[in-house]
Amino acid sequence: MIEQSVSKRRRTRILAIAGAVVFGLAVVPFILYAAAFGWRSLTGDLGSESYLFAGRAPVAETGLSLHMLAGAAITLAVPLQILPPLRRRWPALHRWTGRGIVTLGLVAALGGLVFIGTRGTIGGPVMDAGFAIYGLLLGLAAIMAISRARAGEFAAHRRWALRLAVLILGSWLFRVHYVLWYAVTGGLWSNEGLTGPFDRVQVFAFYLPYLVLVEVYLRRATPRAAHVL
Ligand code: HEM
Predict the structure, then answer these.
(1) d(CA 33, CA 72)
(2) Which atom of ligand 1 is the closest one to the Cα of 123?
(3) Of residues 173, 162, 171, 176, the one with CA closest to residue 217
(4) Which domain holds residue 192?
(5) Number of domains in the chain
(6) 116 lines ligand 1 (CB under 6 A)
(7) Nearest CA to ligand 1 atom 20
(8) Is the C or the N end of the chain the one with fewer CB within 10 Å?
(9) TM spans, by residue (predicted)?
């Protein structure tokens, strides 16, 4: 029995270290890129540097800059927020970080939606639809996570928080899918305008399959395991 719990603790520690290494090496560079891009686009003129800011559309472009800054902040905060030891030890910090994630999550979603509604994405209507559904789901998960916590329904709160965390990481996963696909195929079925068959699938595949996996996990997990998350 004691041996079992020691090996479980060791496994949890190894998983936590592996998670921290992956986050530090693979996710943090994306966060820094998004924050720097968002800041530079908000404070300077990137019209000659990026098609995203070449449209002379101040509302759309400001929305996009703010969404990048908010997106960078929540991508950094979300892994810390779901770590059970931090949550148990500093519940007040968990509540305040949670409020911040929900607020900035709504800014990221709304900023992206404003850009889609006023300028449209590079990939046209299919990409507009994929990203708009993504933004709406992220906004819904943020609102549900906080409203369930305020209602004292903590099991439902944890379920929505998990969906929100997966959606937030979706933006990073979108880039990971491209990096892997280009490394393996050299960019088959993909083009710069993001209108190839691979691109058409990708604009939904960076979040929908992961949401399905979360639902499968939530249905299979014992109440105790689901509580850990
Ligand atoms: C969750 C964190 C998020 C981060 C860190 C993030 C980051 C970024 C970055 C850095 C770009 C610039 C393009 C690039 O360099 O690839 C971008 C573009 C974009 N993002 Fe986000 N984003 C996030 C969430 C969202 C959400 C929720 C939406 C949905 C409304 C959204 C919609 C868009 C759109 C429409 C573009 C422009 C696509 C194009 O036409 O190229 N993003 N995002």
Answers:
(1) 8
(2) 40
(3) 162
(4) 2-228
(5) 1
(6) yes
(7) 112
(8) N
(9) 12-36, 64-84, 96-117, 129-148, 160-181, 201-218
> In angstroms, rounded to a whole number, what is the distance separating the alpha carbons of residues 62 and 21?
33
**Tokens 């029995």 sit at which residue?**
1
Out of 75, 163, 171, 199, give the residue to mutate to test ligand 1, the one with the largest number of ligand atoms within 8 Å of its CB: 171
Question: Which residue matches tokens 């950094």?
Answer: 76
**C-beta separation of 98 from 146 below 8 A:** yes
Question: Are 27 and 54 a contacting pair, CB within 8 Å?
Answer: no
Is any atom of ligand 1 closer than 6 Å to the C-beta of 108? yes
- pLDDT higher than 70, residue 2: no
Give yes or no for residue 97 CB within 6 A of ligand 1.
Answer: no
Question: Model confidence over 15-42: pLDDT tens digits?
Answer: 889 988 999 999 999 999 999 999 999 9
With a 6 Å cutoff on the Cβ, whether 67 touches ligand 1 is yes
Structure tokens at 33: 């890129």
Neighbours of 227 (CB within 10 A): 12
Percent of the chain with pLDDT over 90: 81
pLDDT in tens, 159-195: 999 999 999 999 999 999 999 999 999 999 999 999 9
pLDDT of residue 23: 93
Ligand 1 in contact with 173 (CB < 6 A)?
no
Residue (of 203, 196, 34, 59) closest to 117 by Cα position: 59
Name which of 89, 164, 101 is nearest 134 in CA terms: 164
